[in-house]
Amino acid sequence: MIEVGLNHFLVVSSILFSxxxxxVVTRKNAVMVLMGLELILNAANINFVAFAKYGNFGLGxxxxxxxxxxxxxxxxxxxxxxxxxxxxxxxxxxxDEIDKLKE
Amino acid sequence: xxELSIINISIIILLLPLVSFILLIFFGKKFxxxxxxxxxxxxxxxxxxxxxxxxxxxSYSGETLxxxxxxxxxxxxxxxxxxxxxxxxEINNVTALMLFVxxxxxxxxxxYSIEYMRGDIRYTRYFAYLGIFTFSMLGIVITNxxxxxxxxxxxxxxxxxxLIGFWFEKDSASDAGKKAFLVNRVGDIGMWIGILIxxxxxxxxxFSTIFEQISLGNLPFxxxxxxxxxxxxxxxxxxxxxxQFPLHVWLxxxxxxxxxxxALIHAATMVAAGVYLLVKIFVILTADAMLVIAVVGGVxxxxxxxxxxxxxxxxxxLAYSTVSQLGYMVLAVGVxxxxxxxxxxxxxxxxxxxxxxxxxxxxxxxxxxxxIRFMGGLRKKMPLTYYTFLISTLAISGVPLFSGFLSKxxxxxxxxxxxxxxxxxxxxxxxxxxxxxxxxxMFRLVIKTFHGEPRDKEKFAHAHESKWVMTAPLAxxxxxxxxxxxxxxxLSADAGWFLDKWVSTPQTVVPxxxxxxxMQSGMDKHEIGxxxxxxxxxxxxxxxxxxxxxYPAMFLSLILAGLGILIAFIFYQWKKVDLEKLTGxxxxxxxxxxxxxxxxxxxxxxxxxxxxxxxxVLSWFDYYIIDGIVNASASVTQFVSRLSGWFxxxxxxxxxxxxxxxxxxxxxxxxxxQTGKVQTYIVFVxxxxxxxLLFFRPF
Lengths: 103, 699
Hints:
The complex is a heterodimer. Chain A is mostly helical. Chain A has helices at residues 6-26, 30-54, 60-90.
């Protein structure tokens, strides 16, 4: 049985982060992009917790992870509200087509 | 009368015509009757001037009353010292008599003009001009300094210009005005330079101060020739104003003005201003200056008399006779016959004014016909004009019992005395020749105008004697041409009151080496002082020579005048000589005289033509050289600007455009990165972070 160490956590979080980036970059749907963002935030959370467990930081890592979760909730609320408004304005939520500022 | 009251009244006399001028020029249009006020004012001035003359000749004869005041005080001028300009007035016998003459003739001309100018569209303005003329002439008369003399001199020139060109609708009149003004200006420049020579040295314009300095031996720039120059230059002013050869050409043309104006200005008063000026500066004239003056006067008298012989315009004959008589006066000053110069000025003023006013009466009656070839027989129609004209003609011709005989005789005696003392015999010869010619042409005028049969029947039928306002001045003036007003002895004026009591030759102040010997009194300073108190200071030698010359001059001039009159009668009254044949024989001489010695043509060819030619040359120069330079510089500028424009367009703009294009190109190439898609940016960010990690990796 392999001892689960810091590196394993980091690898999982990097995979999660990469998947998140991939989702953010490739998805057209704004909701999907937001989901990618959630993955990135959670990758960061894994890192916080992992460093807190293996490092000498006390409960700081867990506390920070909690903050990030709250932040993610708030972000999701606001972002979904923005997406709703985008939908109202442009009748779609396709991030590629919403480039009004470009002009 | 006290001294001060004489001067004060003289100043009032000076200002009265100015008041008349101001009233008429500003209110004349509103109150057309104001010309009567103007005439009245001049008559008041005449009354006052009679009072002044009377007071002067009875109480202060021989004295000079003066009043001066500082006009401008410059204070202490660096490198010159204290400098101030004094103005003032002075009255002596000559001044007082001149005041009377000017005022009398002015008043009579005002009166005469009321009728003569009636119906003129600028009737009141005419009287205004007469006012300003009288004012300026009186200013010349009573000033005591050269500056005021010059100012009033120019004012007189201006009023003369205004009056000659009074009928400016006629081209000939406005041209004549211009000509008079310009020709006078030539003389006035000389006069001003002369005045400045004296002022630069003496720092004053006042006559008496300058004379005193010269008598103390303080000559301008310490040289007698500077004094001669100053004298001749000031005389140049007189040459212009008194119409002396070669500046006499304006006076005959000035006859374009109304005839009373010709009488007042161009016969009696203004043209006499030059002679008056010479009388004023007589004491500083050196021998050389006097000789120049005498020669100019003699030449003028002769030239004008020869021209007067053949003229056909009644006013032209009188104009040339005026020039000739003025020549006499100048000649008299030149030969030292001071008193006779002034005497002739006065007598001439009266009889010449009378002649002009008489000719005006004729012209008025003949409906502006001035050519004597169309006159004749007017004696019956206009008896009063005829007899006054005849008296004046007798006076100017030098017939005894009349004033002209006395003064002209004196001048001729003066020239004879001068000839005997200096050997200049040509001057008396000219003088006597002119006397004969004067008698001839004046009687030619009288006979052609008044005697014989009328040549223009229609005009003759309408001719009539003028009204009393025109004939009264004639009567007064012709009365003053009779000897009794000047002397009890009809053959010699020497013992008369005019010369014995009123006017005596002043002692010259020029140092002995620069003046004629005979001009020196032969007395020492003390004796001169005594003699001045008794009122008689002049050269004993000259006075004696005059006495010797008196009887020869009288007989000679009587014979010559008689001869002239006789020839005139033979030619024109009895027609014993075929004039056509005579003029045919002497064709060239006749033409020469009729065309006024071609002097106007000469001036046209030289001065006017020269001016036009030089104007042509200058305009060519202007057109081709100056304009060429301007145009060339313009082309050069144009070329340079084109060059710099090209540079601007291609090099500077090229750089700017290149920068713009380059930026545009860069912008174009980089705008592809700016997709506006957040996802693309995120990809860049990820790669950038990876790159940064690669560069700054800790391991």
